[in-house]
Amino acid sequence: MKKSNNKILITGGASGIGLGLTERFMKEGNTVIVCGRREDVLKEVSARFPSLITRVCDLEKEGDREALYKWVAEKHPDLNVLVNNAGIQQWMSVSDADFFKKAQTEIAINIEAPLHLTSLFIRLKNLGTVINVTSGLSFVPLTKVPVYSATKAFFHSFTLSLRQLLKDKSIEVIEIIPPALNTDLGGIGLHNAAPPVSDFIESIFEQLYQGKTELTFGFSDAMTKAGPEDLQKAFNRMNAVS
What we know:
Blueprint: E1 7-11, H1 16-27, E2 31-36, H2 39-48, E3 53-56, H3 62-75, E4 81-84, H4 99-121, E5 129-133, H5 146-165, E6 172-177, H6 197-208, E7 214-216, H7 219-225, H8 228-238
Parallel strand pairs: 1-2, 1-4, 2-3, 4-5, 5-6, 6-7
């Protein structure tokens, strides 16, 4: 992936890791489009970055995803990078009364949306890079977020296959594998003790420009290199019953 002069769509690019990616890509001289469900948040980010292009889109809805693609194909056919970043994390138990309903929402946003968008956007003749944001929990689940962990394991596996499947189209597939970071993912205050997004962004962009296709940081770097015994130890440590 070239460093600048790209046109990049980042799903969920107005907050958290997505916002970190948006800011850095713009700083590097790229045109960035972000989509998200909350119009007020998009307006706030647009006020900070006047050149940013925004689009309201509820990725849980198939129709919204199709409308997003049609809009990009018509208005921004030179788009060459798709970043599947949007995701939700819900702390819940399988015994919760609304567990299945919440699980359906997580599956729709964390799995169905990026798969659908990928299948649509590879039709763009200029698309050269797909970036998927997974998680260190792809390798060792946190049982407080059972469905989130499972969706990220799915998405990691899919990304490995996608990299192979898109070789004949000369489309590069990059995986960003973050650990827990100081964002509002899962709820305000849950990750206040985690590393800042800025440190993470600095590290992954250094790896990106080294030509790496699997970008890791801290805990996620350790988990991608861990063997079965170390993964089991990590699982026991993370999910210890107090």
